[in-house]
Amino acid sequence: MIRTATPTSTTVSPASKVMSSAPLDIDAAEFAAKFGQEPFLIGHQLCDHPLFEVDRLLELAQSLPEKHIEYNAGDLPVVVEPGKTPANGLSPDETIRRIRECKSWLVLKYVEQDPAYSDLLESCLAQVAKHSEPIRPGMCSPQAFIFLTSPGSVTPYHIDPEHNFLLQIRGAKKVCLFDGRDRSILSEEDLEQLYSESDNQERNLQLADENRNRCWTFDLQSGRGLHFPVTYPHWVENGDEVSISFSITFRTPDLYRRQVLYSLNDQRRRSGQSPAPVGSSPLRETFDFQSYRIRHRIASMLNRG
Ligand SMILES: [Fe+2]
User: Which of 57, 124, 213, 279 has the fewest C-beta atoms lying within 10 Å of its C-beta?
Assistant: First the structure.
């Protein structure tokens, strides 16, 4: 069975409930030229927002289900084998309280479960939607993540499946982003593996030595945000201060189609075939996708019955 993150009916309304002024500063021309294709910087007004104070983040961490807090040691190399990221030996609370000295990386996932963070996410994405809808319509599945990292910590090389803007709230990060369209950097097999894995598995990848410098490098300072196109590989190195980042993400219906096609190719490769790259045969892919949707719909009806 293909594991899918089908876009839900959740949509982002244009009403901002939290901030009287727009939280983001977006250059419309740059957004139109680069969204989904190349990384680019935006500005934001969230550095002094009370939702990112340590006591409020501790309260948030205590309210989230355990499975939605991921944390580990942060003094890592750039490349770590999937499934081998070491633990830091602390609890989430201790990790947050001691983030300055405990050399760790912690993420609070799906923070929109808390209504205050949901409102803030909605305010931000309402602004993004004005620019993204003409390019990739159907914004759905809004989700937000908060990353806390110790000075000098490294987030190893990996990929993520959503449209993402990483807003730097406190401290600074060096972000190395690689072109996800280049199959000499990111292979079809890498994408098949991403889309066949469950949400809780790591997305770390191997990075060939000859590709290490073939990246865009950004010095992401507080007050700035960076757009990560979907599945563009990246690794991140924290600066000399504690870092707090707010990641605002969403999906679009075209990503669901892409996910299904890569999952089908993963199944074919596991059964010994050499599937054609996604995007190389639009007619066959339309047939595959529609067949999958029909099978999925019939299976859902039978399960309900
Ligand atoms: Fe990431």
Answer: 213
